[in-house]
């Protein structure tokens, strides 16, 4: 799984590099600022390495310069595997730094600077709001082909999550959406609360990309691959494209970009968790 997540990020660099032109270095560079973090800057370093501090945290060094966040904090990460992954993002840059391809760095900046100044409870509340408008819980009544497609593709994932977490979510074609019980919300609230701040930052990022709490849980729990989760999040759009056609280059760019961000967020969740086996596995691969 870890190789595939890294592969998706690398594939996206080629596609995204062709999309964006040169621009000013963005003043801000956090997950909430991705719309403006599409700039390039001439590469100013030759070597990238990591170092461990006495307190156990890891730093990223560009030549002899210590990497810092947009907020001016020293860029430190909690474990070696995440440090290696971030250093790789900087190491693979060529003559120019393409910030829009560096999603792990962006997520670390967000966790370190916390630009919106939210605590865990506020992030959890924001994530739970997606359950009320979850992509796969809202169904169409027509055309019949799309109704059948949503049933066949979304229901198995929804049923799996309901069984996995012992909750009732349901789906609806009403504009009001399904009625989510307080018991279900409490279950998900407790589950989200089990993540540390860094992992929760990554999970909210994935939820935001897919616009679905259900798909995000299925992805992070490894029931779905990134490709599957992204395709399911775009099911109606893909149906319309197959029926009416599309602007091919625009579709491909959007797909690559969504896959790259979703893969980075998923990887960030696992690397920020307490599971040492995940970290060892990534380093071995």
From TrEMBL:
Q: Which domain of life is it from?
A: Eukaryota
Q: Which SUPFAM superfamilies match?
A: ATP12-like
Q: Which UniProt keywords apply?
A: Chaperone, Membrane, Mitochondrion, Mitochondrion inner membrane, Transit peptide
Q: Name one GO biological process term.
A: mitochondrial proton-transporting ATP synthase complex assembly
Phosphoprotein among keywords:
no
From the Swiss-Prot or TrEMBL record, state where the protein is found: Mitochondrion inner membrane
Q: Which InterPro entries match?
A: ATP12_ATP_synth-F1-assembly (IPR011419), ATP12_ATP_synth-F1-assembly_N (IPR042272), ATP12_ortho_dom_sf (IPR023335)
Membrane topology of the entry: Peripheral membrane protein
Gene3D superfamilies (alphabetical): ATP12 ATPase, ATP12-like
Question: One Pfam family for this entry, by name?
Answer: ATP12
Annotated Gene Ontology cellular components are: mitochondrial inner membrane
As for what it does, the entry says:
Plays a role in the assembly of the F1 component of the mitochondrial ATP synthase (ATPase).
Describe, as the record does, how this protein assembles with itself and its partners. Interacts with ATP5F1B; involved in the assembly of the F1 component of the mitochondrial ATP synthase (ATPase). Interacts with FMC1.
The family annotation for this protein states:
Belongs to the ATP12 family.
| Protein name according to UniProt | ATP synthase mitochondrial F1 complex assembly factor 2
């Amino acid at each position: 799984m870890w190789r595939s997540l890294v592969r998706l990020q690398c594939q996206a660099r080629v596609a995204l590099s062709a999309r964006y032109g040169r621009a000013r270095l963005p003043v801000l560079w956090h997950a909430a600022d991705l719309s403006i973090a599409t700039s390039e800057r001439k590469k100013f370093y030759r070597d990238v390495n990591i170092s461990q501090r006495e307190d156990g945290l890891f730093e990223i060094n560009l030549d002899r310069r210590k990497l810092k966040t947009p907020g001016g904090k020293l860029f430190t990460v909690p474990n070696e595997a995440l440090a290696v992954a971030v250093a790789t993002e900087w190491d693979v840059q060529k003559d120019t730094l393409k910030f829009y391809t560096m999603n792990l760095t962006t997520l670390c900046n967000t966790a370190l600077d916390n630009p919106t100044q939210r605590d865990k409870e506020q992030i959890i509340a924001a994530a739970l709001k997606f359950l009320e408008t979850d992509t796969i819980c809202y169904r169409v009544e027509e055309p019949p082909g799309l109704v059948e497609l949503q049933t066949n593709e979304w229901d198995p994932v929804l049923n799996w999550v309901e069984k996995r977490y012992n909750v009732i979510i349901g789906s609806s074609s009403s504009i009001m959406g399904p009625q989510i019980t307080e018991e279900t919300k409490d279950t998900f609230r407790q589950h989200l609360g089990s993540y540390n701040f860094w992992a929760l930052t990554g999970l909210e990022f994935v939820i935001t990309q897919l616009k679905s709490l259900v798909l995000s849980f299925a992805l992070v729990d490894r029931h779905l691959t990134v490709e599957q989760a992204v395709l399911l999040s775009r099911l109606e759009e893909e149906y319309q494209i197959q029926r009416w056609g599309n602007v091919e280059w625009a579709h491909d760019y959007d797909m690559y970009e969504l896959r790259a961000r979703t893969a980075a967020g998923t990887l960030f969740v696992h690397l920020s968790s307490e599971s040492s086996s995940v970290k060892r596995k990534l380093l071995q691969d």
